[in-house]
Amino acid sequence: MIERELTVSNRLGLHARATAKLVQLLSAFRSTTTLTAKGREVNAKSIMGVMLLAAGQGTQVRLRVEGEDEAATAEAVCALFERRFDEDS
């Protein structure tokens, strides 16, 4: 199991477009992936689940990945957060 602390740094937070990008990215991996923020834990492969986090800019999010490709999954998600979901220039 891999856990990482991430910060939502894109201006609009985990809104519909960013969440869709995250879920699409995760669809290529087999590992179980969860996000926790504000005391709520959700399946990171669920658009509705991630949207329920209502994670705006600056929100701390805990990523937990477990499974056969967990290292690659965690690396891909961390990179997406670091790139600010490819939104901010």
UniProtKB/TrEMBL annotation:
Which keywords does the record carry?
Cytoplasm, Phosphotransferase system
Annotated Gene Ontology cellular components are: cytoplasm
Gene Ontology BP terms: phosphoenolpyruvate-dependent sugar phosphotransferase system
What positions does the domain HPr occupy? 1-88
Location of this chain's protein in the cell: Cytoplasm
Reply yes or no: does the keyword Hydrolase apply: no
**PANTHER family (alphabetical):** PHOSPHOCARRIER PROTEIN HPR, PHOSPHOCARRIER PROTEIN NPR
NCBIfam families tied to this protein = PTS_HPr_family (TIGR01003)
Regarding protein family, the annotation reads: Belongs to the HPr family.
Q: What is this protein called?
A: HPr family phosphocarrier protein
The organism named in the record is Agrilutibacter solisilvae
